[in-house]
Amino acid sequence: METVKEHYPNPTDESGKLGMVDAKALHPAETPVSLTDIKTDGCFKDFLLVRQSRLSVVPISDAHWAMLTEMAEIWS
């Protein structure tokens, strides 16, 4: 991914506390990886997205990133 527009206020957040960035994919995924795919793979049991799926942005370890890129068939 590459950030194409830096942080700006989320226009749907009336409190003004939330922000967002615009990003574009650098390497398209050959195979989409769904949240269901991630949740059913035991290797992701300690991944924050699985433990607290209401979060839309979470940190990801190098190991989990490697597994996701392999599942999505993304080769950099």
Describe what you observe in this structure.
Helices cover 26% and strands 18% of the residues. It has helices spanning 35-40, 48-51, 62-71, and strands at residues 2-9, 19-24. It has a two-stranded antiparallel sheet with strand order 1-2. The N and C termini lie close together (11 Å).
Provide the descriptors you would attach to this structure in a database record.
76 residues, globular, 2 strands, 18% strand, two-stranded antiparallel sheet
Summarize the structure.
The chain is an alpha+beta fold and 76 residues long. 26% of the residues lie in helices and 18% in strands. The chain contains 3 helices and 2 strands.
- Rg from C-alpha positions? 15 Å
Q: Give me the number of helical elements.
A: 3
Name the structural class: alpha+beta
Oligomer: single chain
Percentage of residues in strands: 15-25%
* Average predicted confidence as pLDDT: 89
Poorly predicted runs are none
The ordered H/E elements are EEHHH
Largest sheet: 2 strands, antiparallel
Number of domains: 1
Strand order of the largest sheet: 1-2
Draw up the topology in text.
Elements: E1 2-9, E2 19-24, H1 35-40, H2 48-51, H3 62-71
Antiparallel strand pairs: 1-2
